[in-house]
Amino acid sequence: MRRLMLVSTALLALAVGLSRVPPALARRSSGGQYSVWPRVVATVMRLEPRGLAAIQTREGLTYEVLTGTTWRVGDTVVCEHVAYTRAPWEALDCRKTS
User: Fold this and answer.
1) Are 55 and 94 a contacting pair, CB within 8 Å?
2) Across the strands, what pairs with 93?
3) pLDDT tens column, 30-43
4) 59 to each of 20, 28, 63, 75, how far by Cα in Å?
5) What confidence score (pLDDT) does residue 51 get?
6) Of 34, 55, 72, 97, whose CB count within 10 A is highest?
């Protein structure tokens, strides 16, 4: 009985120790992955197909970002830099302010 309990505990510890957390989930839960870059204030210049928008900052820089559902041309958006991205249009996380 004692040996069965020891073996099952060891197997459970081994299974938990070898399990892998998906990297995306691990990055989100770490709590320290926030941007050190300042926020970007920009204006929506044009809405493009497939949910993208071209925005232009006050300094004249242009970015392609994912659009919000209620965005219109001329709206002001505030964006934060995202630490881990797969595509250039995911580099900024934007929210409509006006």
Assistant:
1) yes
2) 80
3) 455 556 678 889 99
4) 44, 31, 12, 16
5) 87
6) 55
Q: Where are the domains of the chain?
A: 40-96
Cα-based torsion angle of the residue sequence 82, 52, 96, 91 in order, rounded to the nearest 10 degrees: 10
Q: What DSSP line would sit under 31-65, residue for residue? A: S-----SPPEEEEEEEEEGGGEEEEEETTS-EEEE
Q: Look at residue 4 and give its three-state secondary structure.
A: helix
One-letter amino acid for residue 94 of the chain: C
d(CA 75, CA 71) in angstroms, rounded, equals 7
Specify the 3-state DSSP secondary structure of 71.
coil
Q: Are the CB atoms for 50 and 65 separated by under 8 Å?
A: no
Query: pLDDT tens digits for 43-54?
Result: 999 998 888 999
